[in-house]
Amino acid sequence: MVAVELLHAISVDTRRKIRAEQVSITPQVSGRIVELNIKDNQLVNAGDLLLTIDKTPFQIAELNAQAQLAKAQSDLAKAK
Description:
It is found in: Membrane. By secondary structure, the protein is α+β, with helices and mostly antiparallel strands.
């Protein structure tokens, strides 16, 4: 998921808004980009997949957390 920040919107007297043509984007997580699904200056829509970040570090962290949880549950069972 990528968060997109609108740089500016212009209000006009007709009570309409003109959307910015360029926006800056900031990913919610950092990581190595393994796939870029857009080209420079390509028009994109809300919900379009812009890029894919390597999920391996997150999978490893999840496995480590699961192992720690299993050990803690085992230690608790032994303590009872």
